[in-house]
């Protein structure tokens, strides 16, 4: 859900910023991946991947299909051994160990519950294989079912539970042996939207309560932004960027990350000097960059970062409360799309040439400023939110 910020535009919920900043402070590595390569015949799935994950951290591997995120998770689990490179967990080299010798619990997208076993027997499966006393097993199963809020379902079978309940049982089973590492392979993708939102909150709360180091694979940006302490963005078998949700969203290091995480406007441009760029025949101020003057580039600004200032006489200067004049644009509202919590507006302006600027305005801002299709308005492109990446015009 988007909320209106002080500026009158919708703000994207990225979780607890203070918690994310605390998670970003250096901690001793619990899982250390060094120079990992993985090939399947001629296909190179992972290319020189290195990553450190701290104890108790919740990390999401995020990227499009085929980017290597699931391959990396399976290498950590020992299900697909790497071609070369090393993996250390809690100081122990597990690079060549079989899955049974590694300290982790795993939850798959399909849940993989045993349909012929009751819920309590599913949760107890790993404990029974470790030959623990029956009283200890029963006590642990009771604790876990209570933890996931399904104590009353112990005698039922998986087919008698909803998808969300089955996923919670899969989590309880994975946690039964108190693993040092919890691996989640797109655990919510098979659920409907409302259940996904509810369950991702439950998973995060459970992870915080238990303090278990967790890695989750997902292609859902919102899922990663709301759950992770850090996000590992992957593409074509390499890591594009690692950072907190706030860092990934607000400070993307590559055009791929900017484009993959959230919505973006992209304008071919030419660098007109430090902190300046040219779109068509007009210049804008932009965030600092190290690109040489005269070079081709791609300017990026997110729809949520466009600030509405209402109508203003064309060429009459700045609207009240507006920012830098060079980044104020007189525009025409070509189209408005209602998306529940906000309006997505498509704006045209001679300063953009034939390009359309997409902007997301809150319902309150649209009502207050009288924004309507076909109307004239003025918008501001905050210079610190106009990012520049190398690219072809």
From TrEMBL:
SMART domains referenced in this protein's UniProt entry, alphabetically: AAA (SM00382)
Molecular-function GO terms, alphabetical: ATP binding; ATP hydrolysis activity
Superkingdom of the organism of origin: Bacteria
Keyword annotations: ATP-binding, Cell inner membrane, Cell membrane, Membrane, Nucleotide-binding, Translocase, Transport
Domain ABC transporter stretches: 31-261
PROSITE patterns, alphabetized: ABC_TRANSPORTER_1 (PS00211), ABC_TRANSPORTER_2 (PS50893)
GO term, biological process aspect, one: quaternary ammonium group transport
Keyword set includes ATP-binding: yes
Family classification: Belongs to the ABC transporter superfamily.
Protein name, UniProt field: Putative 2-aminoethylphosphonate ABC transporter ATP-binding protein
Organism: Kumtagia ephedrae
